[in-house]
Amino acid sequence: MTSNALSDRLESIVGERFVLRRESDLLVYNSDGLPGYRRMPRLAVFPGSREETIDVVRALAEDGTAFVPRGAGTGLSGGALADDVVLLGLHRLKRVISIDQENLRATVEPGVVNLRLNRTVAPFSLLYAPDPSSEAACTIGGNVAENAGGPHCLKYGVTLNHVISINAILPDGEIVTLGNPAGETPGFDLRGAFIGSEGCFGVALDVTVRLTRKPVAIRTMLADFMSVDDAAHVTSRIVASGIVPAALEFMDGPTIQVVESSVYAAGYPADAAAVLLIELDGIPEGVDADRDTVREICMSGGARTVTVARNDTERARLWQGRKKAFGAMGRMAPHLVVQDAVIPRTRLAEVLQRITAIGEENRLTVCNVFHAGDGNLHPNIPYNADDRDEAERVHRAMGQIMRACVEVGGSISGEHGVGLDKLGYIELIFSPESLGAMCSLREVFDPLRRANPGKVVPIHACQEWRAAPGAR
Amino acid sequence: MTAAAPVNPFVDLVLDAVELKTPLRVTGRAHWVDAGRPVEATRIASVAAHAGVVDYVPGDLTITVRGGTTLNEIHRITAAEGQQFPLDPAGPGDGTIGATIATGSFGPLAHSFGQARDLVLGVEFVTGDGKLVRGGGRVVKNVAGFDLVRLVTGSWGTIGIVTEATLRLYSVPAASVTLAMTVPDQAVLLAQRVGSILNGPLTPLRTELVSGGVASMLGLPRRHALLVELAGNSASVAAQKDSLARLAGVTEIPSGVWDRLRSIEADVAARGLPIVLRISCLPSRVPQLWTSLAGIESGFDGALVHSTPALGIIRCILPGNASLASMSGFAAGMPDVTIIYERLPAAMWRDLSPGVVSDRLSRGIMKAFDPHRILNPGILGPAS
């Protein structure tokens, strides 16, 4: 089918307004949350219902056209970019289908935004635990595709631990139920395989998630340090103490300064080398005892002050600085590269030293803001992509940081996914046989590799794929 | 606490089996070889001897062990550091981690810590065509690549032989207490009781309903009981214990009941292999189902029932000589729940649970990872 014939067909399903084919209209979809990558879709289609989604996926299957599913486009790995293929946007599927308070679950369409789900269930004293920093914009479907995390995943677990079942349409148009909304599923954990498959295995039509009871007591604390090393060691000591904080976040000096000079200023001490944002939750008697223990660990580990939020307003303010830190970095330079790697928690201090050295070697400012309790680093570098020399130094530094994390036994991504950005690093941690096994799994879900082609596992890692159609 | 990595012996074992066309029965300590669907295999591939710690850094709260390492051994090593691998599946503690992952086994602690799928961070396994594959990693958070860890967990050895795993550990709580409460006879009252424990401000570590027969094996009075373990810092445990005592009469009992609960099936098996099944449903259905099921102790002589209400699980241990007709009748009486048979006489599988891999995706996965049907063929049902 020609491009025009295909877009006519798609328009007949979703209506003229919801198919974009002009380059000027498509421009807004040529990047995601990581602005360093630009890829222009051939056309974009936005179904408004489950039925339209099914019809669109089947029309694409009949036509043999590759496509990229996309939620809100807040991803940070270039995973939702469509390079001259069809972009399938799912943000219009935003119905909360049902809430089961008694069994702590909700069934939602993939385009439901995290924050909206949380606002919907809040009157029942419930919450959906995974809380990516983009929670005000990102969608549950995108969370499933990326196996999204967030600060509170330290205690509550990531998307994988909170999804009960998924109804999905496979790239060939078959509709499948993965998992069981009302109990166990004997046989393979197909739901587990689908979560984190970065849009390569199919499109979720609805997702049943586990809800969590809101804790009765929350204590949010800020500890500030004059040394990054001290803050890193205190992190390790809190983790080893047996207390599982709801969140344990780290921000370094450059991050604190840019947050404090922005509209998101949270009252962090601007001269500190690092702050830890620590949240404890549970029953009042328990969290107060843990708060005292954590305060003691911080103070004996070199903290200058430890302050505890006295009310919800103060708590929200402390969190605002953390959650908007990436946005605040926009003040420093026109572009930002956001990195995502995981290291063993006992290696935090030495890896942070190494990252600082890498930044200095390459004459770059690295802003570290990350989920310290999980060892999930986010070294970010503000830069000007139009300055070729600087862009090259950024690229080199990122590669060096990745290697430093892998060398201590870490992983190349904790929550942002591989997408396009990490394709070059995945062979650092997986053997050809392991990557081959991943290719085999993908092929079960999508034998023609039409869903999100060219992402996650490099084509050359899949021997049998090299000559196959769709290999680019 | 590390050891040099030996060459993985299972690659050659599998390649030999492929060449000789001799399917393998993959086992750990062989506790469950008489459970599960009949396997058409002539050779045993046991991971039991492939044991030991590969890497353990207590500060990271992770441990990497070989597939044959027993749960008891993991418990011993981690307890010395004040840590635990919080999985308490039914069965003897000398079961291997490889088998635990392969069977996706879990117990009442899953309410607080999740199931095997939630606690395994990385795996190494040998596929049915002799490839040595790794999924996941050694850190606590990881989304790099497609998720082979979840694929292997609960696959009953059909995707690959689990030869190594990295596990998430937790600290042993500073304080804990186990309490027993009486169980109301009426479903409505039971629902209120369970609801006030699970849905209130309390955060119990594990909660289990046990029938009179089970209670008696645990050394408790022979009547239905609700067991609750509270854990945390001492202030939290004391406050929660007070709250619980205000709900109903509670008796403090030894924490050893939790280990005893895991072994009741083995005690029964000593007198003849039982039939074991678990019913999986929405948690809200448990009180009503429990009220009707707890009566089967009189219907099936020697039957035992226990339930994890938070997980929507009711587990029944029935006499091994129950007839097919009575088992079919049992299942027919609960048409809208999922029944997972753990142990059945070989002849009954075909009638009660012929297979769980009839869908296109499952068949595709089996074909991709075990193209020659070498690994536990038949254990999940016919592949075609």
Describe this entry's structure for a reader:
The complex is a heterodimer of chains A (472) and B (384). Mean pLDDT of chain A is 94; it is low at 465-472. Chain A has 15 helices and 20 strands. Chain A has five domains: 3-89, Uridine Diphospho-n-acetylenolpyruvylglucosamine Reductase, domain 2, CATH 3.30.43.10; 96-213, Uridine Diphospho-n-acetylenolpyruvylglucosamine Reductase, domain 3 (2-Layer Sandwich), CATH 3.30.465.10; 216-331, Alpha-Beta Plaits; 333-416, 2-Layer Sandwich (Alpha-Beta Plaits); 430-465, no CATH class. In chain A, a hairpin with a 5-residue loop joins strand 8 (163-169) and strand 9. In chain A, the strands form five sheets. Chain A has a seven-stranded antiparallel sheet with strand order 15-12-14-13-18-20-16, with helices on both faces. A five-stranded antiparallel sheet of chain A has the order 5-6-10-8-9. Chain A has a four-stranded mixed sheet with strand order 1-2-4-3. In chain A, helix 1 runs antiparallel to helix 3 (50-63). Chain A starts with a helix and ends in a 27-residue tail after the last helix. Chain A is α+β, with helices and mostly antiparallel strands and 472 residues long. With 384 residues, chain B is an alpha+beta fold. Chain B has three domains: 10-171, Uridine Diphospho-n-acetylenolpyruvylglucosamine Reductase, domain 3; 175-261, Alpha-Beta Plaits; 263-349, Alpha-Beta Plaits, CATH 3.30.70. In chain B, helix 7 (187-198) crosses helix 11. The longest helix of chain B has 14 residues, at 234-247. The chains are: A alpha+beta (472), B alpha+beta (384).
Short description:
The complex is a heterodimer of chains A (472) and B (384). With 472 residues, chain A is of the alpha+beta class.
Major pleated sheet of chain B: 8 strands, antiparallel
Distance between the termini of chain B: 46 Å
Beta-strand content estimate of chain B: 15-25%
Query: Structurally, how many domains make up the residues of chain A?
Result: 5
User: What oligomeric state best describes the polypeptide chains here?
Assistant: heterodimer
Beta strand % of chain A: 15-25%
The proportion of residues forming helix of chain B, as a percent range, comes to 25-40%
Give the helix/strand class of chain B: alpha+beta
CATH third-level topology of the largest domain in chain B? Uridine Diphospho-n-acetylenolpyruvylglucosamine Reductase, domain 3
